[in-house]
Amino acid sequence: MSLFNEEAQEQITTILNKMDNKVELIFFTQEFECESCKDAHEFVKEVSELSDKLDFTVYDFVKNQEEVKALGIKQIPAIALADKDGNDTRIRFYGIPGGYEINSFLTSVVEVSGAGEPIEDDVMEQIKAIDKDVHIQVFVTMSCPYCPQAVINAHRLALESPKVVADMVEAGTFPHLSNKFNVTGVPKIVINNGAEELVGAQPLEAILEKIDAL
User: Fold this and answer.
1) How many helices, marked H, and strands, marked E, lie in the chain?
2) Are 81 and 91 in contact (CB under 8 A)?
């Protein structure tokens, strides 16, 4: 049985039709799939079937250590996005980007394809000036309507700066991480293992301020 009804498939297809170039969805799971891995696998598979510009690759978290290490994948289920040339965009989804998060997933796919909205020149200058390694984790739940924009902003920073890696982290799927970073409300944006934090759907400028303060 499909995760998406006919209406949802049509809506997703309409969004994916905005893509300029191919995007590769790289999915990490394991042979004996955990429940969230199984559902996430089906999610990525079904979305990939809705556009001929989406390629779908699956790696085993245990057996494919070379790929795991190359992309720095820390837990599963995980989805990484690569551009038309196979380059890693440093965009990660940990857990299922379902519910409201399908918006951040589809937006990131379209942006990786080259069809993203332009960023204001002064903000782009700030992004290009990032000169330190930055890891952004955006904790979300699938029922949070404010979370997708926080994820979209973090992922756009990763797409535009080779110094930034940005993760969506579904809080309920990874309770050990939620506890570690004291996630009591979402979206919660954690930068460089808690060196800086933000709560709420913050604009790009607010995240850049925190990066600048590192």
Assistant:
1) 8, 8
2) yes
* Rounded distance between C-alpha atoms, residue 59 and residue 37, angstroms: 12
Based on the fold, state whether residues 100 and 20 are members of the same structural domain. Answer: yes
pLDDT in tens, 81-119: 999 999 999 999 999 999 999 999 999 999 999 999 999
The Cβ-side half-sphere exposure at 154, using a 13 Å CA radius, reads 35
DSSP assignment letter at 114 = I
The token duo for 184 is 């009591």
Please tell me the distance from the alpha carbon of residue 190 to that of residue 204, in angstroms, as a whole number: 14
**Are residues 106 and 19 part of one domain?**
yes
What's the DSSP call for residue 133?
Answer: -
Cα–Cα nearest to 198, from 157, 142, 139, 123: 139
Tokens of 122: 């002064």
Q: Are residues 71 and 150 in the same domain?
A: no
Based on the fold, state whether residues 43 and 92 are members of the same structural domain: yes
Cβ 54 vs Cβ 83: under 8 Å: no
